[in-house]
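Entry 14. Structure prediction run on the chain below.
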Amino acid sequence: MKTRAATVLVTGTFDVLHGGHIAHFKQAKRYGKRLVVLVARDETVKRLKGQRPYFNEQQRCALLRELKIVDVVVLGDLKDPLRVIKRLKPDVICLGHDQKIFVDLLEGCKGRLPFYVRVLRSKPVLRGVYRSKNIKHHYAVDKRKSGGI
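Output returned:
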């Protein structure tokens, strides 16, 4: 009997895709053959972070689908964040080194998933440099300096 290839799930907003995200995907892909990216919905981002993402959920998904390392891109569920995880049944969930929001959800669901999933965390790459909010802030400052805003 053939065992199925491991599925690795990563989650996030992925607003302003950058090198830190790519490094995270590469680290995650080492744990399996199929990399699935779960993208936070616009409404979820607004509720959790207080503002809408720069790029909407469809734009973020479209960009991620262009990456060769990514096998599948799915949007999160607005009502039940675990619904997608239950449907996909990943073997591994690889969290970003600085990811906080999804960690609490996973901690709260221990023993509630009908299958075993290994939860790992990727290692930081150039800590503090690759942060979407820092990149957006610097872009806005540069644009103001050049008279673009």
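The first strand starts at residue 7 and ends at 12.
Filed with the rest of this week's runs.
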